[in-house]
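hey so i finally got around to running both of the ones u sent me last week. sorry it took forever, my laptop kept dying halfway thru and i had to restart like 3 times lol. anyway pasting them below in the order u listed, first the sequence line then the structure token line for each. didnt double check formatting much so if smth looks off just lmk and ill redo it

first one:
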Amino acid sequence: MLPDEPDRIPFPIKLDAVSNAEFLAPPPSAVVHETWKRTLAHIEHESRRHNVDRRVFLKGLSGSATMLAMLAACSSEQKASRLGSSTSGTTAGTFSVPRDATTSSTVAGDLLTGDEFIFDVQTHLLETAEGPLGQAISSFARGFPYSQCGEADAFDCFRTDHWLEEIFGRSDTSIAIISAIPIVIEPNPLSLEVMLAAKRAAEKVCGDGRILVHGQASPNVGDVAATIDGMRALVAQHDIAAWKTYTHVPADRGWFFDDHDPAGVQCGTAFLDAVMEIGPRVVCVHKGFGGLGSGSGQYASPIDIGPAARAYPEIKFIVYHSGYESGHSEGPLRVGTDVNGIDRFIATLQANDIGPTGNVYAEIGSTWRAVMQDPDEAGHVIGKLLKQLGPQRVCWGTDSIWYGTPQDQIEAFRAFEITESAREEFGYPELTAAGKRQIFGLNSAAVYGVEPMPVCRKSTADIEAARRSLPPSIPIGPRSLAELQAHIRAHGGP
């Protein structure tokens, strides 16, 4: 029987409802519950047959393959049971898992391991814990499942050493960006100083060149001229890979890149002019997950991306989350004025003739994690992005360590495919192995001007041995509205 709290079982693919604290995650679906149930039944049978502890089997590559196979089957069965579905009973996406992969770690390894260069453009950690804000964050951290990592103080689970372990020790990530979060008061638990210290720590572990850092820009806070002066000084003193900004934070200070809304703070044009002058000409912006509880959540809309990208063709815009909205089920592309989520993002691109050769990139951090538990929705999300932007304009990000190790997201994407029926009906491109390589890292390497490099770990055997020896990775993120509100208050957000 499935336990009341499945997160206490070390499932290798984390499908439980957790948040990156920018949205309220919906509860696990009936498909997810059935996936858990079938996975446990299969693991119970196989662990007895091979005389292996159930938890050891779960932690292996065959455990991951089993979960993905069960998830694909359950999703397909649910879709087939719905009469009149858009894909005539088939899902838009699926996980292609050979039957033998659920019992053989060798076959599972062929499916779930790889030599792709993986460049995670969205990772985070928390390091500062002094003063009133630090106390609030430390208190809040105790509510995260990851606070059970084994540290005496829950806040210590979020520090640099755990970030290193989750990103580089447990996953196939080769290069990562430490991306700023929307905190505009001090002490900032992810300040530039914290980022640079983490970069130095990573270089000691894995060598130089693996960590890039963002410069935080909040032109809507205070005097925009002072912000631009600060940007100029930051670039003069540090190697900043890109600018990270949030157009919907803080509350009641929302803004758009194109300044089209007179009710918003009029700072977008000034900011982009400064980016052109100062560089680097790469802007990463949160769009989607529209600021739960925010008085300016509408400014998380991507409607300004198309006009801004057209007006500033020399700036590369990396749209974090691709405009995805939690609670809005993605399906075939909808057009018109009443659209949301990915469709709203695509609409602004189409209206401004921005496609696979343009200067807009779709980042899928938290978006892929949210939709991979629903292969049908995932097929539409990835399919629509590929159709509009091509595989050369989609970038890999995971929002880790908010969810623990990103390895399960990597493995799920390796096994994922857009179904032939969806390609025929909706014109989605095939998600090829070459396309996955572009998304995993080659696109971002081109944007940031870095050379691909191998992971710290090497062989499949090393990966399997490491998986079985480590304690289970715990998913990290708020699970309830109360935890989410606590996170928002602790981080100085809306």
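and the second one:
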Amino acid sequence: MNLTFSARKTELDARFKERAQKKLNKFDRFFDSASAFATVTRERDRFTVEITISSGGMFYRSENTAFDEYNALEGATNAIFRQISKNKTKLAKKLRKDAFVPQPDDLSSEIETVGDEEEYKIVKSKTFSVKPMTIDEAILQMNMLEHEFFIFKNSGTNETSVVYKRKDGDYGLLEPEVL
């Protein structure tokens, strides 16, 4: 697995990088080819490790905060493993066929206002590719990313749509209507 590191307000030593590579290489059994991006951020006395794995148009993301970077890494990798395990039947077509054969080193052990007018301030802009998928695939992808909404190209209508998580735990779908 190709792994890229990013550090904010901290320095990463070689031992941490080796440990992260070893932990993430265990996910190779799930993917034919994948790339991972790990970001380590230090805020006062806490470390946050965010891991994003990209494979075949699907993204798997987790984040964990702990008092040291090693425990945060452990929690983040375990969270991705739980996501994949929880959704293994839905992901079966996207992941390797032999991915869920038990192995001895299984991871489971382990707005700004001015006067009377409001000015909207854009603090981040992001572009992404929109892949044709079914509504169920879009909901699965949204859950894997732990987001509240997800934009996708509906393979049934060939239109850009949005799925979102409602406060009651159900899901909503926004579809455009041309006037």
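quick thing i noticed on the 2nd:
Residues 108-117 have pLDDT under 50 and may be disordered.
anyway thats it, ttyl
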